[in-house]
Structure formats: structure tokens, C-alpha cells
Amino acid sequence: MKDNTWENTAASLLKAELAKRGMKYPDLEEKLKEIGGNYNCSVIRQKLARGTFTAAFLLQCLKAIGVKNLNLTEYFNEN
Question: How many structural domains does the chain have?
């Protein structure tokens, strides 16, 4: 298993949730500002490109875009 597998999974999860809602990074930036987050598009883009962000950032984003339920099965399937 590669060292960055967890980072890639976290980034993929957040990107998928954005895509399900038809949202782009500027939309996420605006939604984060509405709940008190202070991130600009370039910071968001960098975090998702690297996959290096905290669980707190992930939770903020999920709340900001309105995720109520999260099915992790597709991210943790054993192949």
C-alpha cells in the first residue's frame, strides 16, 4: 500500500461530494465563508491536489456543502 493512499481517499471523497452537488472550488470557498471558514480557492485547490488536510477541514467542507449522510463503502471496498 502506498503511503499516500489515505490522503488520496480523503481528497477523492471530498471531490466526489462536490461533484454530486455540481459544485466547484469557488462554490466551496463561498460555502465555507458562510460557516466561518477562511480559505480561498487556491488554498482549497492545493489541499485537495495534495490530499493533505485535517479531519477538521474535511468536516467543515462536508458541513458547508450540505452533506447529511456519507456512504464510505465505495472508498473502503476490499479488492
Answer: 1
